[in-house]
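Protein in question quoted in full.
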Amino acid sequence: MGRAHEVRAASMAKTAAFKSKHYAKFGVSIYKAAKSGIPDPELNQALKKELERARKANIPAAVIQRAIEKAKGDLSGAFHEVRYEGFGPNNSLIIVDCVTDNVNRTFTEVRTAFTRAGCKIGVSGSVTHMFDHCSIFSLKEFSDEEVLEILIEADCDVEDIDMDEDITTIVAPASEYQKIKDALLEKDQEIDFIEDEITFLSKMYVTLETEEDISQFQKLLRQLRDLDDFQQLYHNVEGVEEDEE
């Protein structure tokens, strides 16, 4: 009975820790979206999208409300968006975005993750110049010709519009994100975007040939994603399954 109690207690503690971390990540995402515009989901599409994700993930209403109130300035404390750049095996390139209330702590944790995986953190700008910072949208509501007409009319700067079967994909500079989204939503408020994000696309990709390099790369990604302040990760490695176990 004693052993069973210990197993149950350990399982409960593990579950509680997972929930706490899970809630924290959603709280930060909601905070960021609320700070990006007006903290009202009816007037802020980014916030509306994050709230929909949070509800689907069964995030408690109290966690959601607290993040919005913090964005409004009703609660003490503030988060900062920080970006780290580094080098993996075979000169692979990695960008890590975090949101934190303690920049020194987060830098130390990210640097430690790189070091433990046998990789190296770089200085600001050492990696991002090898990526294009882009807005990407994918949708079914309009053809490529219709999208082109809409975006020309709205005077949007676009790098590429492609249609594959019934899905139209738009690639544009990151700075054009809101302008393009507003133009599309003005034509159809009910658009269900398949993709809707600002991301980094590598200008040059690499492959990892040895099992040692692949294992090292997967270890680094696992450690970075396991950080409490982790938000997003970009890299230029092709053909490797990202083992997140």
Observations:
- Confidence is low (pLDDT under 50) at residues 1-18.
